[in-house]
Amino acid sequence: MINMSQAMTVKIKLNPNELEEELITLSSLTYIKTVNSLVSEMVKSKEITKKSSKDVKVSLNSSVKNQAIRDAKSVFKKIKKDNFKNVPILRKPVIIWNNQNFTVCEHGIKMPFVIDGKSKKIEISATISDYEHSLLNKASKVGTLRVSKKGNKYIAQIAIEIPEPINTSVKTMGVDLGIKIPAVCCTNDNEVKFVGNGRMNKYVRRKYNARRKGLGKAKKMNALKNSNNKEQRWMTDQDHKISRDIINFAIEKNVGIIRLEKLANIRKQTRKSRKNNHSLSNWSFYRLASYIEYKAKLVGIKVEYVNPAYTSQRCPNCGHINHAKDRKYDCHNCQYNGHRDIVGAKNIIYAPVLDGNSQVA
Hints:
Layout (H helix, E strand, L loop, with lengths): L4 E10 L3 H28 L16 H20 L12 E4 L5 E2 L3 E8 L2 E10 L2 H9 L2 E10 L2 E11 L8 E6 L5 E5 L4 E4 L2 H20 L3 H32 L4 E5 L4 H4 L4 H9 L2 H14 L3 E5 L21 E3 L6 E3 H11 L11
C-alpha cells in the first residue's frame, strides 16, 4: 500500500522586537540581492554557477547561502528555458532556511542569523495556535522556513507534508452549493445541515459594490483597489468557515465520501436575476470546492465530483423532472415535496461520478 501525503503550508505570525526586526530586514535584503546577483552572473555566462557557499561573500549563514544558490539556479533554468527573453529581478525581501536550521518551539521559532561575524540562533516570539502545533507534530516531512513581511506583519511559512489518514467508511454526503444558501449537506441517511448565511453574504457584497461605484466616480483609484482587496479577503474567510463547518459535520456523521457538483462555466449556464447578478459573478464556487477538498483530505475523507445536470430538478423519490418554485420543490408525479437545495444534495449523492471512479458499490 502506498502511503499518500498532502503538501501544505503552515503560516505563523512572528512578533519580533526592534533588534530582531532589523536582523530579519537586513538578512532578507541580503538574501534577495544575493539571488539576483547570482542570476545576473549566470545570465552573462549562460551557464549554471559552480559556486558554493564559500564563494558567496555576504553576511548570511552557509545554509542560507546554499539555499540562495539553489533559488538562483531555479530562476536561471526558467530564464534559459524561455531563451533568455525575460530576466526577472526579485524585489520582495525574503529569507529562507532549510529544515535543519530552524526549530519550532512552544511560543516561537529559533532561526540562525549572522551577528558580529558569527552564526547565532535566536528564538523569535510567534503566535502559534494549537491547530498549527498539531499540524507540525503530525507532519511526515518538514520543508523550508520562509520569512517575509506582509504590510506591518512578519509571516513565517513552513512547508510540510501531512500523511492522509485512511477512512474506510462508505457513507456518502452530497453538498449542494448556492447563492441564497451557500451550502446544503445531506447524507445517504437523510441527515441534513444548512451552512452559511446567503443573505448576509449578499448584503456585504452589495455594500462593497456600492462603495466601489462611489470611489470610481470620485476617481479614488487606490481606495478602489483596497476596497476590492478587502472584499476578496472577506469572501475567502467565509469560504474557509463554510468549508470547515461542512467537514466538521461530515466527521460528526462518520462520512467517508463527499460529493460535489462540477460547477464548470456556472456563470454562462445559469439564468441570473438582476438582483443576483453581482453575487453570482463574484462568488468563487471553485475556491469553496477546493477548500472542502483539501480539508477533507486532511481527515481521510474522499471528495468526488458529479455531473450537475438536473440535480435540483429531478425528484429523488421517483426520478421525474420538475421545476422548483423558489426554495420549494413539489413533484407532480408522486407528490413528493421538500426543500429544493435538500433535493439537490440528495440527487448529488446518486449522480454519475465524472471520472467514473465511484467509491460506492
